[in-house]
Design a protein that fits this description.
Keywords: Amino-acid biosynthesis, Cytoplasm, Histidine biosynthesis, Lyase
Family: Belongs to the imidazoleglycerol-phosphate dehydratase family.
Distance between the termini: 19 Å
Radius of gyration: 16 Å
Order of helices and strands: EEEHEHEEEEEHEH
Largest sheet: 4 strands, mixed
Main location: cytoplasm
Number of helices: 4
Helix content: 25-40%
Strand content: 25-35%
EC number: 4.2.1.19
Pathway: Amino-acid biosynthesis; L-histidine biosynthesis; L-histidine from 5-phospho-alpha-D-ribose 1-diphosphate: step 6/9
Strand order of the largest sheet: 1-2-4-3
Length: about 200
């Protein structure tokens, strides 16, 4: 299908009084990440997301982490969502839906996605601790919500169980990568846009 041969990639630059971010995202990648932010734990999670989704992702981000990591994490989520939306275009030929379970030792996470163009986010997770190193666990919600909002996708994240907070969050990001890879993959049986409305 010639309509699906276009390169599905985008980049964005976002500069505010709180952050300075350059981000490039390729849907049809090889799992290569170049992540340079002031938030080491997020660097690790984005690397996992990229590898397991077989995307290409480059992030350069500086932020006001002397206050806390909130603005940097939030704005990276915004930028990733914007590039995902732009890269997918009108979504012709995509599978659209995905549901993926990923275990990580003691933890099990599930991510369900619909590339619906109707942003919605549901998050079910109870973590044993509220911090991993210097990273505030509540920022996982912030990142995922802004990603869903800016990408205009329907994103459901459920952490079914776990005893190690790091493992639980890691399972989420791995599942996110794999679910997004599946939902964005091209199905040769799909003619046009996968919706009875004729548009997403």
């Amino acid at each position: 299908m010639a309509e699906n041969l276009a390169i599905r990639a985008a980049e964005v630059a976002r500069k505010t009084n709180e952050t300075d971010i350059k981000l490039a995202f390729g849907v049809d990648g090889t799992g290569i990440s170049k992540i340079d932010t002031d938030v080491p734990f997020l660097n690790h999670m984005l690397d996992l997301f990229t590898k397991h989704g077989q995307f290409d992702l480059t992030v350069e981000a500086r932020g006001d982490v002397d206050i806390d990591d909130h603005h940097t994490v939030e704005d990276i989520g915004i930028c990733l969502g914007q590039t995902l939306r732009e890269a997918l275009g009108d979504k012709r030929g995509v599978k659209r839906y995905a549901s993926v379970f990923v275990p990580m030792d003691d933890a099990l996470a599930q991510v369900v996605i619909d590339l619906s163009n109707r942003p919605a986010f549901e998050y079910r997770a109870q973590y044993p601790s509220q911090q991993v190193g210097s990273f505030q666990v509540e920022l996982v919600h912030e990142f995922l919500w802004k990603l869903a909002l800016e990408a205009r996708i329907n994103l459901h994240v459920i952490v079914h169980y776990g005893v190690n907070t790091h493992h639980m969050i890691e399972a989420v990001f791995k599942a996110l990568g794999r679910a997004l890879d599946e939902a964005t993959s091209i199905d040769p049986r799909v003619q046009g846009v996968p919706s009875t409305k004729g548009v997403l």
